[in-house]
Write a structure and sequence with these properties.
The complex is a heterodimer of chains A (476) and B (488). By secondary structure, chain A is α+β, with helices and mostly antiparallel strands. Chain A folds into three domains: 3-285, no CATH class; 295-407, no CATH class; 416-475, Arc Repressor Mutant, subunit A. Chain A is built from 15 helices and 17 strands. Chain A has helices spanning 53-65, 161-178, 218-237, 283-292, 297-308, 312-319, 322-334, 338-355, 367-378, 384-397, 401-407, 416-429, 431-438, 443-455, 462-475; strands spanning 3-14, 69-70, 73-74, 77-80, 90-93, 100-101, 104-109, 112-125, 129-133, 137-141, 148-154, 190-200, 210-215, 245-250, 255-261, 271-272, 279-280. In chain A, strands 1, 2, 6, 7, 8, 11, 12, 13, 14 and 15 form a ten-stranded mixed β-sheet that branches. A three-stranded antiparallel β-sheet of chain A has the order 5-4-16, with no helix packed on it. The radius of gyration of chain A is 30 Å and the shape is elongated. Chain B has 488 residues and is α/β, with parallel strands linked by helices. Chain B is 39% helix and 12% strand. Chain B contains 15 helices and eleven strands. In chain B, α2 packs antiparallel against α3 (48-63) and α9 crosses α11 (353-366). Chain B is globular and about 65 Å long. The chains are: A alpha+beta (476), B alpha/beta (488). The A-B interface holds A 39, 42-51, 78, 80, 82, 84, 87-90, 140, 267, 269-271, 274-277 and B 81-83, 89, 91, 96, 99, 101-103, 105, 200-205, 207-209, 235-239, 315-316, 318-319, 322-325, 327-329, 339-340, 343, 363, 366-368, 371, 375.
Chain lengths: 476, 488
C-alpha cells in the first residue's frame, strides 16, 4: 500500500506591539521573572482587560498579507482550562468569530509553486512560563502572560515535511515583511502545532490525526512530521489503528510520545468574554491597514528583477528575509550598484552572518558601510580582495571602511614608479621563471604578479601590476 | 439630630456649615457601630484608624477651604467584593480570606477623589451569590428590623448597615437584585444603575454582563447624590459607557404629573404576598394622585427571566471564579499531592456550597453538547426580554413592580435553593436587560417589616426614575428607625 501524509499546521506568532494585549505592561522578551506584569495580566480579582487596538491592527495586517478576509465584526471568547501558567484559568482567545477568515500562501517547494489555504487567523493572549527548579519545585514566571499572539490555522494542504518547512519559511518571511512580528523562533515568537495523518494514495478521506504541540524550530517541525508519519504508516501496515491524541515530540531523540487521548481532551467551555465588547472594523479601516502594508516579498522580488535587472537567483536570496532586503535597498540608495551590492551581500554578508550565528535582524553592519566599501573598490582605493577583508572588519568592529583602510594602511598602491622598481628587483631575483616565460610558459606571469601582491601585502592594484610585469618581462 | 441618623445631604450641609467636623461624624458612626454591630454582624472589616485619619485630613482641607467636593468627610461602607487598596477584600469567602488588593476599584478611587471616607467593608453572600447574606464564610448578617430574619442579599451587609445607621451611604453590587432586594428587606433605598454607567473595574466579578455597582442610602435624594459620585466613563472597563452623565439630583422633586407608568400583569404571580400586593396598589394610587398615568401592561417573557438568569450568571461565574486556584494569592490547601490535587483541595475547602452549586451549573451549561441547549438558548431569551422592555419603554417612562415577593424571611427558612432564587424574581429581568431600577421603602408589614417598591427605567433613564421614586418616597409613610428586636 502506498501512503501519503496529510499535514495541517497551527502557527502561533507573537505580535511586536509595544504593550501587551490587555494591559499597559511592556511586551518585551526576557526580563527578570515577574517584572513585566500587573494586576490585569496576572488575573487579580476585579481587574478587567482592555483590548490593545494595535493588536487588532497587527492581526488584520497579517491577515491582509495572507489574502484573508478581515471580519467587520468579531469577538473575544474565553477558553477555560487549569494550568499554573494561565493565571485566570481561562485564555482570552477567539472561537467562532475570528478576525481573519480564508486566505492562502503561495510558496515554492524546490522549483514547484504550491499553495496552502489558510482557514483562519485569530487573536489571543500568551500564557506564562513554568520554571522547574531542581530541589525547590516549580515556579512560574508571568512575564509572557498577555503577550499578544495570532494563531494562523491552515487547511490540511501539506503533504510532506519538506513542504511544511518550505511553507513555514515563506510564511515567516511574509509576516516579517509586514512588521507585525520579528518571528524569532529561538525566543519563541513563532511556534507551531502540527497535525499529522496518513492515508492511502488516491483516498479523499482524511485519516485519524495526531497533534504535536509547541514545536519551536523548523527542523523540529520537519523531524516531527517525518517521525510521526513513519510511526502511523508502520502502525497501519501492522494492522493497527491510529488513535486521535496529542503527542509530545522529542527533538533530540527524534521520537514522539503519547500525552493525552481524545477522552482526556479538554472541554474548553468556550463562551464570549463578557468583559470585552465585540470588535468592529469598518471597510475604511481595513483599507487603511491595507494601504499601510509594506511591499511584500513576491512583489519586491519581481521589482528587483524588473527594475534593478537582478537575476532571479539574486532577487530570491535578497528578498527571503526582510532585514536583508531592507539592507540591500538602503545600501543601493547610498551607492547605486545593485548587482555589485547583491554579490557582496550574497557572498560576504550572508556568509559572515552564518559563520557568526547572527540573525539578519541583528546584522551589525550599516547599509552605508557596504556602500562605502564598494565605492572604495570602484574608486581604486582598495582592490576587491582587500575590500572583502575590510568588510569583515566592519562586521566585527563596526568601524567605517575608510577608517579601517587608513588605520591598517590598506590603500591600494597605484604608483607605477614604486611598483616598477619593485617588479624590476623581483625579475632580477628570479631568473628561472623569467626563462620559463621567455620559453612560452605564460603561467610564469602569474608567479610574478603573486610575488608583487605578496610584497605589497595585497595592496597593489592587480591590473597595474599585470601591465608592468608584462612590460618588464619583455624587456628582461 | 443624632450624627448617625443624618442623610448624606444633612451631613454634607452640616460639614459645609461647620456645624460638625468629619472627625465628629466618623466617631459618631464608629460609636454606633460599636454599640449595634454585634447584634447585626454587617461588617467584615471596620477601618476605624484609617477612617479617623482620613476624617482629620478632610477637616484640615475644609478649614483651608480646599475640600475635594461637597461630600468631603462623608463616611461610606463598601461591600466586601469591591477592591480597596491596602484593606482586606474577602468577598466573604474563605478562598480570599486574607486577600489585600494592591489597587482600588474605580468607585473607591472616585470616592477618594471626592473625600468620601471608607469606614468599613460590608458582609455579603459569598462572591455575591445569594439572597440572604447567609452564605458568608464569616457568618450571617441579621436584619435590624427583626434580628431573627435575613437582611436579604447579596448586599445584605451594606443594606443592614445603612438601615442600622452605621453610615449614610453604602455601596453594593447588583447582579440579579443584590442591591434592591436587601434594600427592600431593610427599609432603605437601593439603586441599580444602568449597566455600563458605573465602572466595574475593581469589582470582584460574579457575572460580568450583569454585575453593576450601586448605592444604598436612606433617601432617594441621597441615591441621586451617590450616583453623581460614582457614575462616569472609565477606560479600564470596555463596557463602561462613554457618554455625558447628568447631575442626577437635577429636577428630582419636579413631580410625576403626566408621567406614564406601566404595571406588567405578570408581576402579580402566585406567591406574591398580600401585604406586598397592597403596598404596590398603594404606591400606584399615590403616584396617580400626583398626576402620573399608571396602566396595566404585559411583559410576556417574564416567566423565562429567572431561568435565563441562572444559566447566564452561573456560566460567567464559573469562568470568573476559576482564577481562585491556590497558585497566586488567597487560600491554598495545606495538604495536596500534585497540581491537580492542589486545585481540587484548595477549591473544595475554599468555596462554600452555594458557590460550588453555581459553578457546577455553569460548567454544565457551557459543556460541549449542552451549550446550545442551555447557554445559547438563554442568550436568545435575553434578547427577547430586552425586546419586551424596549417595547414597554416606547410607551412608558417607568415600570412599577414589587421589589421582592414578600418581606424579609426568617434566617434558615429557605434551605431549598430554588425557594431562595425565587426571591429575586422581580429584580432579575432588570439585569438581564441592562436597565436601571430602584427600590423605595413604601410600607410596613403587620410584623413591622419594611416593604419596598421597585421602579424600572430604560438604560440611562435614571433621572426620570428618580423623579418617580422621589414622589413615591414623599407619599409613603416614614420608615422610622429599626428596632433591633428579636434575635436568636
Amino acid at each position: 500500500m502506498n501512503f501519503e501524509t496529510v499535514i495541517g499546521l497551527e502557527v502561533h506568532i507573537e505580535l511586536a506591539t509595544k504593550t501587551k494585549i490587555f494591559c499597559g505592561c511592556k511586551n518585551e522578551f526576557g526580563g527578570e521573572p515577574n517584572t513585566h506584569c500587573c494586576p490585569v495580566c496576572i488575573g487579580m480579582p476585579g481587574v478587567l482587560p482592555v483590548l490593545n487596538e494595535k493588536v487588532v491592527e497587527f492581526a488584520a495586517k497579517a491577515g491582509l498579507a495572507l489574502d484573508c478576509k478581515i471580519a467587520n465584526f468579531s469577538k473575544m471568547d474565553r477558553k477555560g482550562y487549569y494550568y499554573p501558567d494561565l493565571p485566570k484559568a481561562y485564555q482570552i482567545s477567539q472561537f467562532d468569530l475570528p478576525i481573519c477568515i480564508g486566505g492562502h500562501v503561495d510558496y515554492k517547494d524546490g522549483d514547484i509553486e504550491k499553495r496552502v489555504n489558510i482557514t483562519r487567523i485569530h487573536m489571543e493572549e500568551d500564557a506564562g512560563k513554568l520554571l522547574h527548579e531542581a530541589g525547590t519545585g516549580t515556579a512560574v514566571d508571568y512575564n509572557r502572560c498577555g503577550v499578544p499572539l495570532i494563531e494562523i490555522v491552515t487547511e490540511p494542504d501539506l503533504r510532506s515535511a519538506d513542504e511544511a518547512k518550505a511553507f513555514l519559511e515563506t510564511l515567516k518571511s511574509i509576516i516579517q515583511y509586514t512588521g507585525v512580528s520579528d518571528c524569532k523562533m529561538q525566543e519563541g515568537s513563532l511556534r507551531c502545532d502540527v497535525n499529522v495523518s496518513v492515508r492511502e494514495v488516491g483516498s479523499t478521506v482524511l485519516g485519524t490525526r495526531t497533534e504535536m504541540k509547541n514545536l519551536n524550530s523548523f527542523s523540529a517541525v520537519h523531524g516531527a512530521i517525518e517521525a510521526e508519519s513513519a510511526r502511523q504508516i508502520a502502525l497501519i501496515t501492522d494492522g493497527g489503528k491510529v488513535t486521535q491524541e496529542t503527542r509530545r515530540f522529542d527533538d533530540i531523540k527524534g521520537k514522539s510520545y503519547a500525552m493525552r487521548g481524545k477522552e482526556e481532551a479538554h472541554d474548553y467551555r468556550y463562551f464570549p468574554d463578557p468583559d470585552l465588547v465585540p470588535i468592529t472594523i469598518t471597510d475604511e479601516q481595513i483599507a487603511l491597514y491595507r494601504d499601510s502594508l509594506p511591499e511584500l516579498p513576491t512583489a519586491k522580488k519581481q521589482r528587483f528583477i524588473d527594475e534593478l535587472g537582478l537575476p532571479e537567483y539574486d532577487a530570491d536570496l535578497l528578498t527571503g528575509e526582510r532585514a536583508i532586503a531592507d539592507f540591500f535597498e538602503a545600501s543601493i540608495a547610498a551607492y547605486n550598484e545593485p548587482k555589485k551590492t547583491s554579490n557582496f551581500i550574497m557572498t560576504d554578508l550572508l556568509r559572515l552572518l552564518k559563520e557568526n550565528g547572527v540573525e539578519p535582524d541583528d546584522n551589525p553592519v550599516q547599509p552605508i558601510q557596504l556602500a562605502q566599501t564598494l565605492k572604495l573598490i570602484d574608486d581604486g582605493k582598495i582592490n576587491v580582495t582587500v575590500g572583502k577583508t575590510v568588510f569583515e572588519d566592519v562586521f566585527k568592529t563596526g568601524d567605517d571602511p575608510s577608517s579601517i583602510v587608513e588605520a591598517k594602511g590598506l590603500t591600494q598602491i597605484n604608483d607605477t614608479v614604486e611598483l616598477s622598481g619593485m617588479i624590476k628587483q623581483i625579475i632580477a631575483d628570479n631568473p628561472k621563471p623569467v626563462a620559463d616565460f621567455k620559453g612560452g610558459n605564460k603561467k610564469a606571469l602569474t608567479f610574478f604578479v603573486g610575488q608583487v601582491m605578496k610584497a605589497t601585502k595585497g595592496k597593489a592594484n592587480p591590473k597595474v601590476v599585470n601591465e608592468i610585469v608584462q612590460e618588464e618581462l619583455k624587456n628582461a | 439630630m443624632k450624627l448617625y441618623d443624618m442623610t448624606i445631604k444633612q451631613a454634607s450641609d452640616a460639614l459645609q456649615n461647620k456645624q460638625i467636623s468629619a472627625v465628629e461624624l466618623t466617631k459618631g458612626l464608629l460609636n454606633r457601630i460599636e454599640d449595634k454591630e454585634q447584634s447585626v454582624s454587617t461588617l467584615n472589616t471596620v477601618c476605624a484608624d484609617f477612617a479617623l485619619k482620613e476624617a482629620e485630613a478632610s477637616d484640615k482641607r475644609r478649614a483651608a477651604n480646599t475640600q475635594k467636593s461637597m461630600f468631603d468627610g462623608i463616611p461610606a461602607i463598601i461591600k466586601d467584593n469591591i477592591c480597596t487598596k491596602g484593606i482586606k477584600t474577602s468577598c466573604s469567602s474563605k478562598i480570599l480570606e486574607n486577600f489585600v488588593p494592591p489597587y482600588n476599584a474605580h468607585v473607591v478611587e472616585r470616592f477618594a477623589n471626592q473625600g468620601i471616607i471608607t469606614l468599613g467593608k460590608a458582609n455579603l453572600d459569598e462572591f455575591a451569590m445569594g439572597s440572604s447574606t447567609e452564605n458568608s464564610a464569616f457568618g450571617a448578617t441579621s436584619n435590624p428590623w427583626d434580628l431573627s430574619r435575613v437582611p436579604g442579599g447579596s448586599s445584605g451587609g451594606s443594606a443592614a448597615a445603612v438601615s442600622a445607621s452605621f453610615a449614610p451611604l453604602a455601596l453594593g453590587s447588583d447582579t440579579g437584585g443584590s442591591i434592591r432586594q436587601p434594600a427592600s428587606y431593610c427599609g432603605v433605598v437601593g439603586l441599580k444603575p444602568t449597566y455600563g454607567a458605573v465602572s466595574r473595574y475593581g469589582l470582584v466579578a460574579f457575572a460580568s454582563s450583569l454585575d453593576q455597582i450601586g448605592p444604598i442610602t436612606r433617601s432617594v435624594e441621597d441615591a441621586a447624590f451617590a450616583l453623581n459620585a460614582i457614575c462616569g466613563h472609565d477606560k479600564r472597563d470596555t463596557t463602561s459607557m462613554d457618554v455625558e452623565y447628568p447631575d442626577y439630583t437635577q429636577g428630582i422633586s419636579d413631580g410625576v404629573k403626566g408621567m406614564k407608568i406601566g404595571l406588567p400583569k405578570e408581576y402579580f404571580a402566585d406567591g406574591l404576598d398580600t401585604e406586598v400586593k397592597d403596598a404596590l396598589s398603594a404606591a400606584v394610587k399615590a403616584l396617580e394622585s400626583q398626576g402620573a398615568i399608571v396602566e396595566e401592561t404585559t411583559l410576556p417573557t417574564f416567566e423565562y427571566a429567572l431561568t435565563a438568569y441562572y444559566i447566564i450568571s452561573s456560566a460567567e461565574a464559573t469562568s470568573n471564579l476559576s482564577r481562585y486556584d491556590g497558585v497566586k494569592y488567597g487560600y491554598r490547601a495545606s495538604d495536596f499531592d500534585g497540581i491537580t490535587d492542589l486545585y481540587t483541595q484548595t477549591r473544595n475547602q475554599g468555596f462554600g456550597d452555594e458557590v460550588k452549586r453555581r459553578m457546577m451549573l455553569g460548567n454544565y451549561v457551557l459543556s460541549s453538547g449542552y451549550y446550545d441547549a442551555y447557554y445559547m438558548k438563554a442568550l436568545k431569551v435575553r434578547t427577547l426580554i430586552k425586546q419586551d422592555f424596549d417595547a414597554l419603554f416606547e410607551k412608558y417612562d417607568c415600570i412599577i413592580s414589587p421589589s421582592a415577593p414578600a418581606p424579609a424571611f426568617k434566617a434558615g427558612e429557605k434551605s431549598d435553593p430554588m425557594q431562595m432564587y425565587l426571591t429575586d424574581i422581580y429584580t432579575v429581568p432588570v439585569n438581564i436587560a441592562g436597565l436601571t431600577a430602584i427600590s423605595v421603602p413604601c410600607a410596613m408589614s403587620n410584623l413591622g417589616l419594611p416593604i419596598g417598591i421597585q421602579l424600572i427605567a430604560k438604560p440611562m433613564g435614571e433621572p426620570t426614575m428618580l423623579k418617580a421614586a422621589y414622589a413615591l418616597e414623599q407619599a409613603s409613610p416614614p420608615m422610622g428607625q429599626p428596632t433591633f428586636k428579636g434575635g436568636a
